Amino acid sequence: MIDFYTWITPNGLKVAIALEEFGLDYRAHAVDITSGAQFSPDYLAINPGGKIPAIIDHATGITLKESGAILFYLAEKTGRFLPPSGAARHQTIEWSMWQAASFAPTLGHAHNFLTYNPGMAPFAEEIFRRDTQRLYETLDARLEGRDYLVDDYSIADMATWPWVSRFARHKINLADYPNVRSWYLRLALRAAVKRGYEVPHVTGAIPLP
């Protein structure tokens, strides 16, 4: 059994979707970051950084934080959604790292400047608007002629999709990125993605472009 500590953010959703895709037994614990629950002593004992998500795998005794590290751990634990060797494995790692190092941080700032605090910092808004568009262009180019980021559906797709699901907060029209739009809708039809999107609780239907 895995205890999964999460909230309704893209980083939380990527692990929720992964747990559903891997078919692992888990218990979801809502950590309401809007009320500061991530800084409670009990949670800081699990993740001293005070961020979600985190897991405790009671089968192995391993506690992990950082959504990307959790995805790699679950893939290796189950032997699924991460090729064991070769170019496909390295490309899956590559695009997972792109998501963690470039896509997610930039889009997180886009949330803050373009949606939550518009007009507060015009220079920053313009920087993150341009960078967000550039990253969507990168993703669109990668998905040209592809169903998934690498050869088959993988943890790289699971990591990236929840961030794209916030496209409205990025001020992005997915019609401008047709390959991303097709990929996004393809994954939105997956039963495990639908279930994961409702963890730790339902916030509404998956946004559709």
Automatic annotation (TrEMBL):
EC number: 1.8.4.-
UniProt enzyme class: oxidoreductase
Keywords (A to Z) from UniProt: Oxidoreductase
Designated name of the protein: GST-like protein
